[in-house]
Amino acid sequence: MRSVLRVGAVVAAMIALSSCYPEDVPTSASTTTSAAAPTSVPTPEQRRLQGMLAEGTRMADVLALPTDIDPEVTLYGRAGVLTSAMLVVMAGHSQEMKAVAERNGLLSGFISHRTNGDRERRKDLTHGVMRFPDADTATKAAEEFGDTAASSPGLLQNEAQTPAPLPDAPETRFSYLEDRGRFQGMAFTAVREYVIYTSVGATTRADLERIALRAIELQRPLLDDFRATPPADYPDLPYDPDGVYALAIGDGDAQRGAYRRRGAVLFAQDQPRAATLFGEVGLNAMANKDTTVYRTDDSSGAQRLGAALAEMQRELQPAPTAPGVASSSCRSDPQGGANSWFCVVTAGRYVGEIWAKTQDDAHRLLEEQHRVLLAAK
Fold this sequence. Notes:
Blueprint: H1 9-15, H2 44-59, H3 66-69, E1 75-81, H4 84-91, H5 95-103, E2 108-115, E3 124-131, H6 135-149, E4 162-164, E5 173-179, E6 182-191, E7 194-202, H7 205-224, E8 257-259, H8 261-265, H9 271-280, E9 283-288, E10 291-296, H10 299-312, E11 317-319, E12 328-332, E13 341-347, E14 350-356, H11 359-375
Helix pairs in contact: 4-5, 5-6
């Protein structure tokens, strides 16, 4: 669920630096499990890379929810598969972070960023998990990530962070930086073949330590429950196992992908409410491109979900929907902006969600999404 409440301009500019997906990996409908006829045959390397991306979307299901780590980070910022390029953008750090990930054979991962939206007492939380080939490599990667944070400034920093022990987590590589009354900290924790990455921005060092410890506490048991795909099986791992990604419109960006219920919660503005709502309506799959498509167990669940999604945008004003598009509604922000138009449409057990800059763009996407969902099974 995108929103007109966006991440800050600085973070947005960083995100715009990279799409964070390998450019030559086909993730369109032609390479999913849908009935669409393929237009090209992926090479073995493309299939392997696509499998790594698919594994990343699977890892979204075991990422600790940011609002469980810190209930104050109520505003969605960004989420996506954690490629090495995405790590640079989301860590707000140097290319050395990317080099560490690639040198140690990063297989896949998932990451999410949220904020509290308070300009005076701003708090940011970026939390992710990375998977490496084995436990020894993950330990080495965590150490090198920590060394990098302590030896090179971030993209928006003038100096490197200071290493420090993290209370009750001696295995964690932690560092922090104080700048004009604001603290920024990074924590890297190896857990078997995984590295837990948590970055926090807050007004006190105590907040950094508390949130980093909470993230580790919640993340460990979730990783214990994850059944990782053997890397040798990546070429055969379907990118769109439920056929929902094929129904979304456009190409999307680094947030694109196919997710199950818990992964879908990571993209919600109100995560606690979404976690409850998605269970109540029987949400079983979601996919992001330029539009978002949700699938529920039955049409009644889709109707309830569509109504709830629209109600969640009550800060926007009611706006005209596209003529002839049944079971749809739109809302907009009179002040404008990149995502100032919101529309939702239901068809059968599917719900389509559209965010756009203008009414024309919103209605065009809405009409196209409606046609696709009407034809879906």
